[in-house]
Structure formats: structure tokens, C-alpha cells
Write a structure and sequence with these properties.
This protein has 293 residues and is α/β, with parallel strands linked by helices. Strands 1-2-4-3-5-6-7-8 form an eight-stranded mixed sheet, sandwiched between helices. α1 links the parallel β3 and β4. The two termini are 30 Å apart.
């Protein structure tokens, strides 16, 4: 896969699908997930809608730049934000991660793209639209929230599963991946598929250190609600009815904040993108792009 250097020193690993002459769809990953999270079949479904698709690794995960040794304590950051106290310094914010994606577009000579992000990726693409509005043709926020930690808060079981440290050995990591069933689609959640994808992730790049810095960036970036109210970009918000990691309130409130946005709450979807729903996602994003044009 190719790698692109941004103008702020971060190198981004990426992969493209489809015809570069078509409108670009930039896909942004969630917390600790690699570009593999946007599975090839789903990317191909987006290509069939007329998109030139780019998926990429965020900083601190996969094969993009890693900020080795830079310290972050996300729990201290979260407590300071909650208590209204000075926030400890963090290595980067969601704004920096948004700039990485925009920097990738610039490196590829792409002036504007449709952007779609899941979970933390939804937060990143919201930030792209807020801070780089001229580069965003449309915005799709999937299973995400507006940055207020009280909105769409996880169930205790989902929170504990997310924050449990991963096993360091390959077999333990793969078996531990089934913790994600707590937030997966009740109908389509598949432990064997979770294990298969965990093995793929581990073999490509196992880097748990980056998770602390990414989580600290989420917490330290704060509430985007006021900025989302000012957005003027065609927007789609998708959320799963079974989601327990960011509960559906996160999607509903995000959509309410963005004037003119379309909210779609999907049955049989959790905090995941199940294969049986890929055609639905492709139709929704294709329809948004056509309306935006």
C-alpha cells in the first residue's frame, strides 16, 4: 500500500479503490482501528455508487506515523474535563487527526471529498467539516456523538470491554476480540468473524501504545455542539439501534445539531458495520452525494 507525507510531518498509509476521476469518498476509522475496518467488500460497494474511495490508517495505528513514547493519561484528561479543571497536555487532538486526513487529500491533489467516519472517525469527520469546510463536499457521521461525554454514554458493560487492556500475545488478542460482542449487532454479531479480523489486525500491526493517545485526544477535544450548529454541509448521520458503546442518543443529538441533516437509525446494527447492511450504507452515502451535487 502507498504512504503519503502530509505538510505537518505525519505520514499516512492509505489504499484507494475505483476511478480517481470519480468523486472521492474519504473513509475515516474509529478508535484503535486500522484501515482494514472498512472492509474491501464495503469499499467496492461504495465504488459501485460512483465513488473513488480512499481508506487510511489514522496516526498511532496501523502503518501510519506512530508517536512512540509520547505520554497520555486519558482518565486524568476525562476527569479534568468533567470537573472543569485545567486539562493535562496531550500529544494531539482530534483537530490534528482531522488535519491528517485533509493533508492526505492535499498530497493526492484532491481539492474536495465526501467524508465518512465511524465512531472516533465520526468525530474526526465532524471536525474536518468544522475546520476545513471548503474541503468537505458532504459529511457522514456513523455511530458517533457530538463530543459531549454525557450524550450517547456507553453502558457499563460496553465501557469495561472497551477499556480492558488487550492481551499482548497473538492467541490471547484474537480470543479477547470477542468482547466486542457486547456492542455488536444482536442479529449479525459473529465471534468467528471477530476472531478472523483480529488475527488480520494483529499480523498487520499490533500497537496498543497508541490507544492511550487516541483516547486522550477524544476526551481533550471536548464538545463540538456549538460548532456543529453552524455547519452548512449536506450531512447524513447513521446509528445502530443495538449500539451500547455509543448509544443511539449520540447519533440523534448529532443530527439535531446539524441543520438539514438526515438521521437514519438502523435496526440490527450495533457499534459495527455488518456485511448484510453494506448495500444499505452504500445506497445511503450514494444518495447523499447525489443530493450534494
Amino acid at each position: 500500500m502507498p504512504r503519503a507525507a502530509t505538510d505537518h510531518g505525519i505520514e499516512i498509509e492509505y489504499e484507494t479503490f475505483g476511478d480517481p476521476a470519480d468523486p472521492t469518498l474519504l473513509l475515516v476509522n474509529g478508535y484503535t482501528s486500522q484501515l482494514l475496518a472498512w472492509q474491501v467488500g464495503l469499499c467496492e460497494a461504495f465504488v459501485a455508487q460512483g465513488f473513488h474511495v480512499i481508506r487510511y490508517d489514522n496516526r498511532d495505528v496501523g502503518l501510519s506515523t506512530k508517536l512512540d513514547g509520547q505520554r497520555a493519561n486519558p482518565m486524568k484528561v476525562a476527569k479534568a474535563m468533567r470537573d472543569g479543571e485545567p486539562v493535562p497536555e496531550v500529544p494531539y487532538l482530534l483537530s490534528d487527526m482531522a488535519a491528517d486526513g485533509i493533508g492526505l487529500l492535499s498530497a493526492l491533489d484532491i481539492d474536495q471529498a465526501h467524508v465518512a467516519g465511524m465512531s472516533m472517525g465520526g468525530m474526526i469527520v465532524q471536525t474536518m467539516a468544522i475546520e476545513h469546510p471548503d474541503r468537505v463536499a458532504s459529511l457522514t457521521s456513523i455511530m458517533s456523538n457530538p463530543g459531549d461525554v454525557r450524550i450517547g454514554a456507553p453502558t457499563p458493560e460496553a465501557r469495561d470491554a472497551l477499556l480492558a487492556p488487550p492481551a499482548l500475545d497473538r492467541d490471547g488478542y484474537i480470543e479477547g476480540s470477542t468482547r466486542a460482542l457486547v456492542w455488536a449487532s444482536k442479529r449479525y454479531g459473529d465471534p468467528q468473524e471477530l476472531r478472523r479480523r483480529a488475527a488480520e489486525d494483529y499480523d498487520r500491526s499490533f500497537y496498543p501504545e497508541g490507544s492511550l493517545r487516541q483516547l486522550a485526544a477524544i476526551y481533550a477535544s471536548g464538545d463540538r455542539s456549538d460548532s456543529l450548529r453552524q455547519l452548512d454541509v449536506p450531512t447524513l448521520v447513521i446509528h445502530g439501534r443495538d449500539d451500547t458503546l455509543i448509544t443511539p442518543e449520540g447519533g440523534r443529538v448529532t443530527s439535531e445539531l446539524i441543520s438539514g441533516s438526515v438521521y437514519v437509525e438502523v435496526a440490527d446494527m450495533g457499534h459495527d458495520l455488518p456485511k448484510p447492511l453494506w448495500s444499505l450504507y452504500a445506497d445511503l452515502l450514494g444518495g447523499l452525494a447525489r443530493r450534494a451535487a
